[in-house]
Amino acid sequence: MRKACLSTLTATLLLSGCAPAAQDTPLSGQTWQVVALHTSPEVPGALPADAAGKAQLRVSGSSLTATTGCAPLRAKVELTAETLEFEQVEVGDTGECFGGSRYVHNSLTGLFEPGARFDIRMFGEREALLTRAGEELERPSIRMMAL
């Protein structure tokens, strides 16, 4: 009996070492605040003053929960150490939303769509840049700070 338990424990430990743990991915388990949003070369990336601090996201496993500054957003995602890919996205009701908050909401919901993939670049442990994957020279990006 003892030998069988040791064999099972050994096999479990060996197999668990094969899959990356969720905490091994740089974005997982923290709340991230959107601090800049670059959608095109013609538009500055700084957030409008009335939208600053309102857009946040958090990834846990294959789930992303966020607020766009106007509405809640939930998504099923695939997160690796280098990429974040959106599989399913649900956006809640925006209600009364206007100005800079509406701009940020429209920009984020336009970027966070099923099939969208972002390259992740970390600047230390508390700053991240999500850049839309693709061959374009001027790709949209989202700069975030961990809270």
Automatic annotation (TrEMBL):
Please provide the record's keywords in A-Z order.
Signal
Signal sequence, renumbered to the chain = 1-21
PROSITE patterns of this UniProt entry?
Answer: PROKAR_LIPOPROTEIN
**Is this entry keyworded Signal?**
yes
Q: Which domain of life is it from?
A: Bacteria
Name the chain's protein.
Answer: META domain-containing protein
Native species of this protein?
Corynebacterium mycetoides
